Amino acid sequence: MDFIFAPWRIQYIKQAAEHEDKGCILCDYPKRNDDEPSLILYRGEANFVIMNRYPYNAGHIMVAPIRHCGTLDGLSGDERNEHYSIVARCVAIMREVFRCDGFNVGMNLGRVAGAGVDQHIHTHVVPRWNGDTNFMPILGDSKVINEAIADTYKMLKPNFTTL
Asked: N or C: which end of the chain has fewer CB within 10 A?
């Protein structure tokens, strides 16, 4: 058996357990007034954009309603319209900034569907490049994220000021 040490994962594990008992991370982060440490790129009227602290790929962001809501049909028309308008703008910004070849855009509705935060809906926007899936996931059962999250935040943030 191979052992891969990933000590940064303990922060995610503790944080997830903490929020199960104490609240919702997608409600708590926007309440802080510290966007950079919270990785919030943009705040709209009813939705916000936050970077995924545990990304599937470099540049992985999420769009979430500010109001706690666990279902698509629980959003008002205005919330839903703004949500998808922001998702579309995120794709355009990231296409320009990262020059990526494609995107995975979607939602995991419910824990059994893969939602880590299953009581607060959010849309994932993950940039993809030709060749970004190399031999590591196949042979090493490991994923390599090629850029520090703080660096990605600093690169993206100026592009979200006029969203």
From this structure: N
